[in-house]
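Q: Here's a chain of 286 amino acids. Please give me its 3D structure as tokens.
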Amino acid sequence: MKRIFILAFTLLLICNVWGIKVGVVVEFPDGKLWYRCLNVEENEDGYRLMEKTGLNLEWSYYNTLGHALCKIENTGCPASNCFCNDKYWNFYTAGIGDREWIYSSVGFDGGSSCNEHYCAKYGDLLGFAYGGFGTKPKFFEFRDVCRSNKRRKNEFNVIFNNSASINEIININVSDKRDGKGIKNAIVEVFEGLPGISKIIFSGKTDKNGSVSFSINREGKYKIRIITNNKYTPVQKILDLYVYKKAITTTTSTITTTTESTITTTSTITTTTESTITTTSTITTT
């Protein structure tokens, strides 16, 4: 009985300390996504939670406002000048059942209560995107981030021609690297520049064979973002696409007329008349 009580108490303690899961999604300016499911304490503040991500973070501290996030990895401003330009790490949250990000109305750990700073709850998602006000990361549902890692070991292949002419049909095929089967409903997005920041000019999903087609009517360099489900690692790939003006091929046929010249060679035959000189010797006999 005593052992059962100790075991129950231990389980209760573990649940209180590591009782909830929270997902974190970070989208960098080049379109790359980082995400992780964390085990955290219930009501843990945002600063302590983010320190558990393993990301290289730089913070600045502002007394009653608490910590401000200045830099993630190599993107952002130094802690000594956290808001060095008009771009910063936008902070969003979402709960189970939400279909879009909600801009956080509170900071990471300022104040003394959950009304003044973020407090973790089961099923929360924290989203971060670097840019001007309102820049959002790609949205994921909680179940997409907090799945067993055993289900995210597969990789996927993308087959396409990365150069095309204006209005040429561009075919993209997304397949499972392990068995070569097409991946259905993979999201294919084409951007004029950096994914998530620049204008999107095409968005579609792959068919049952893992294929999708589109065309572009203006030359330039584009970015293609392909997002699969969380069965695959990485979840997405960013690829370059070059669109050129249609080349005009002019075929010039050169017809060469050869005029055959007949050269008549006149042979002059010189006849030499050989002269025979006869010498007469006179012998006088005395």
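Q: Can you summarize the key feature?
A: The CA atoms of residues 25 and 108 lie 16 Å apart.
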